[in-house]
UniProtKB/TrEMBL annotation:
<keyword id="KW-0486">Methionine biosynthesis</keyword>
<dbReference type="GO" id="GO:0009086">
    <property type="term" value="P:methionine biosynthetic process"/>
</dbReference>
<feature type="domain" description="Homoserine dehydrogenase catalytic">
    <location>
        <begin position="136"/>
        <end position="313"/>
    </location>
</feature>
<dbReference type="GO" id="GO:0050661">
    <property type="term" value="F:NADP binding"/>
</dbReference>
<dbReference type="GO" id="GO:0009088">
    <property type="term" value="P:threonine biosynthetic process"/>
</dbReference>
<dbReference type="Pfam" id="PF03447">
    <property type="entry name" value="NAD_binding_3"/>
</dbReference>
<protein>
    <recommendedName>
        <fullName>Homoserine dehydrogenase</fullName>
        <ecNumber>1.1.1.3</ecNumber>
    </recommendedName>
</protein>
<dbReference type="InterPro" id="IPR036291">
    <property type="entry name" value="NAD(P)-bd_dom_sf"/>
</dbReference>
<dbReference type="Pfam" id="PF00742">
    <property type="entry name" value="Homoserine_dh"/>
</dbReference>
<comment type="pathway">
    <text>Amino-acid biosynthesis; L-methionine biosynthesis via de novo pathway; L-homoserine from L-aspartate: step 3/3.</text>
</comment>
<comment type="similarity">
    <text>Belongs to the homoserine dehydrogenase family.</text>
</comment>
<dbReference type="InterPro" id="IPR019811">
    <property type="entry name" value="HDH_CS"/>
</dbReference>
<keyword id="KW-0560">Oxidoreductase</keyword>
<keyword id="KW-0791">Threonine biosynthesis</keyword>
<feature type="domain" description="Aspartate/homoserine dehydrogenase NAD-binding">
    <location>
        <begin position="10"/>
        <end position="127"/>
    </location>
</feature>
<keyword id="KW-0521">NADP</keyword>
<keyword id="KW-0915">Sodium</keyword>
């Protein structure tokens, strides 16, 4: 057999990582694939920039030059944004290339189309690197959990947010200070909006939804919140009560009703994602047979992301069709107002923060804990989801859910007398 010819689209952090990994793991790849993988061309935006690559490699800004390489088998894509990545990969697939991408923004929007094109062309698409970097979640779901139904996915999908929340808690620092450190360390972009406002985690959740349920919610209906409203004072109270605040991306299917959100929630030490700290990512998948399966690892970075792309090589070369999408269930409805279930007969736990918080005339609120910090009252309560919704709708209150605490309504809400002296009408 001849060497396997490959091209790299993009030569930034990830592209350079793939180039390096192919060199340092040449022998391992050869023993797995039976042939060497040779990078023939690299596509970049700025043709004038000096690139430290082998002499034989064509470095170009013209995608057609890449596509015209005879017997090109593999196209790695690590450029930014929906376009031109989608168009380039569509053309590569039409030409019979196997493609491997790290581009989550593009894949969240166009992944389904690319997979369909690949199926029609009889080639495969690798997209492990789009979601949680080097953490092998995509192929764990698509190949190792094919018979199980996926009931829910709950994940920490953005390392920058997780790093900031971890360090705010451990060092007692303010959000802005930890963000600055994260930027100095290269964990956060100069423009951190995608990470700290939850967009990055949202794209990854949509990719996981397509994979797990064969569909994804209407994007506008998914509740998306970042971590910018989490304060160090809040974290101090949560810590005293035994909780950590985590930025969780969640989607579940419950009797045909689907619920999705990306937002900060509280987790206690029983929760599988409680110990996931710093820049780590983790994905917990609740399955029909295997129960809860959690995969944890580096969510980003040059070599972990390159690892996912290079590992995808074996998959795309050894499989003949790109249809790794599970199509077992379809999304019938999305209830974005509730984070864990669409049913209103559930009781959950919530922390409510307000300047003079109280509950008047509700039989549905059980006070579990309270604390006062300056003008702010912190209450840990148990109540029906419906009641929590009305609390969340009150713009004077900040409400955090405690993850994993929703129980059927038969769980009696009692001790109403414990509820509050401070009263305002909600
Ligand atoms: N960084 C990570 O840890 C990570 C992890 C998982 C997934 N990803 C995803 O991987 C992709 C690449 O990320 P990165 O961090 O490597 O980005 P990056 O460092 O900014 O590099 C982007 C590369 O793409 C090239 N490029 C941009 N627009 C192009 C265009 N229109 N045509 C041709 N080339 C173009 C750039 O060319 P020039 O060099 O000429 O500017 C650069 O080489 C993104 O989609 C990102 O979301 C990144």
């Amino acid at each position: 057999m001849a060497p396997i010819k490959a091209a790299l689209l993009g030569f930034g952090t990830v592209g350079q990582g793939v180039y390096e990994a192919l060199k340092t793991h040449r022998e391992q790849l050869k023993s797995v694939l039976g042939e060497e993988v040779i990078i023939e061309a690299i596509l970049v935006k700025d043709g004038a920039k000096k690139r430290d690559v082998d002499e034989h490699i064509l470095v170009t800004t013209d995608f057609d030059e890449v596509l015209n390489i005879p017997d090109l088998q593999i196209v790695f894509e690590a450029i930014v944004g929906e376009e031109p990545g989608f168009t380039y990969l569509s053309k590569a697939i039409e030409k019979g290339c196997r493609v491997i991408t790290a581009n989550k923004v593009m894949f969240a929007r166009h992944g389904k189309t690319l997979l369909e094109k690949a199926e029609a062309a009889g080639v495969s698409v690798g997209y492990e690197a789009t979601t949680a970097g080097g953490t092998p979640i995509i192929r764990s779901i698509s190949q190792l959990l094919q018979v199980n139904d996926i009931l829910s996915v709950e994940a920490i999908l953005n390392g920058t947010s997780n790093y900031i929340l971890t360090n705010m808690r451990e060092k007692g620092s303010a959000f802005e200070d930890v963000l600055k450190t994260a930027q100095d360390l290269g964990y956060a972009e100069a423009d951190p909006v995608n990470d700290v406002e939850g967009f990055d985690a949202f794209y990854k959740l949509m990719i996981l939804s397509e994979l797990s349920f064969g569909s994804s919610p209407n994007w506008d209906e998914v509740e998306r919140k970042g971590i910018t409203e989490v304060s160090s004072e809040q974290i101090e109270v949560f810590t005293r009560w035994g909780y950590k605040v985590k930025h969780l991306a969640r989607i579940r299917s419950d009797s045909g009703l689907f619920t999705a959100s990306v937002k900060p929630v509280l987790v206690d030490s029983e929760h599988p994602l409680y110990g996931v700290e710093d820049v780590q990512n983790a994905i917990m998948v609740e399955t029909s047979l295997a129960g809860k399966v959690t995969v944890q690892g580096a969510g980003a970075g040059k070599l972990p992301t390159a690892s996912a792309m290079v590992e995808d090589l074996t998959y795309v070369l050894q499989s003949h069709s790109g249809a790794a999408v599970r199509k077992k269930q379809s999304v019938l409805k999305v209830d974005s107002s509730s984070s864990e279930s669409g049913s209103s007969s559930l009781v959950g736990e919530y922390v409510v923060i307000g300047s003079s918080v109280g509950f008047n005339g509700s039989d549905d609120i059980q006070l579990l804990k309270q604390d006062v910090r300056g003008d702010l009252v912190y209450l840990l309560i148990r109540c029906h989801e419906e009641t929590a919704k009305s609390l969340k709708a009150n713009s004077e209150l900040v409400v955090y859910e405690v993850a994993g605490k929703l129980k059927p309504a038969e769980v009696k809400v009692e001790d109403r007398d414990l509820v509050l002296q401070r009263v305002i009408n909600l």
